[in-house]
Recover the amino acids of this structure.
């Protein structure tokens, strides 16, 4: 059994969505400065780094992050390689995604962007038609290796179609070292009461 950590390293240099606070961490107590213990404080956008979007992010009064069905976040997952493609459409998904896929992780050129701190609006993502395809297949989860499942110039419909169909959205994965294939996914979002998203640790297990 091999465990792959597909979470992004969260630090102040991580790419963040434009006009959001990003991530800050500092030591509120520091043994190096004479304190008895070391204790750190963080300030961050809940969409910073690897995270799950809950329906509340786009739909007023909808399910929050604490209400996500964890059974959708644990189980068989297919990593499919879409490198070289910017707009992931329903036609491409139909050709490349294995049948009976319950959880789909999209590996794209985005994985090479994460070491850089500057946001890149040209990231690869799912089209509205692609989202409808995923929803029609009754998938439990879809993940991608950048800050959003929808294109920067896309519409909210990409998120809305997935959310209304009950598909969990997992964003900002690190799939750079992950080969295409079948894995066991374990992804657990933090229990942040009332939040529309939650940071998560995600791993893939290859037997």
């Amino acid at each position: 059994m091999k465990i792959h950590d597909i979470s992004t390293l969260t630090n102040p240099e991580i790419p963040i969505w434009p006009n959001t606070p990003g991530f800050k961490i500092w030591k509120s107590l520091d043994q190096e400065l004479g304190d008895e213990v070391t204790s750190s404080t963080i300030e961050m956008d809940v969409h910073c780094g690897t995270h799950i979007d809950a329906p509340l992010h786009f739909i007023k009064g909808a399910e929050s992050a604490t209400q996500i069905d964890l059974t959708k976040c644990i189980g068989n997952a297919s990593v499919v390689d879409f490198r070289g493609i910017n707009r992931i459409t329903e036609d491409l998904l139909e050709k490349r995604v294995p049948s009976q896929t319950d959880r789909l992780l999209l590996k794209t050129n985005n994985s090479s962007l994460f070491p850089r701190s500057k946001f890149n609006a040209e990231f690869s993502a799912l089209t509205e038609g692609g989202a409808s395809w995923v929803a029609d297949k009754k998938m439990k989860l879809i993940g991608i290796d950048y800050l959003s499942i929808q294109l920067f110039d896309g519409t909210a419909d990409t998120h809305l179609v997935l959310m209304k169909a009950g598909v969990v959205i997992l964003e900002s994965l690190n799939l750079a070292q992950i080969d295409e294939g079948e894995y066991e996914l374990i992804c657990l979002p933090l229990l942040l009461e009332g939040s529309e998203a939650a940071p998560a640790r995600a791993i893939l297990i290859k037997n």
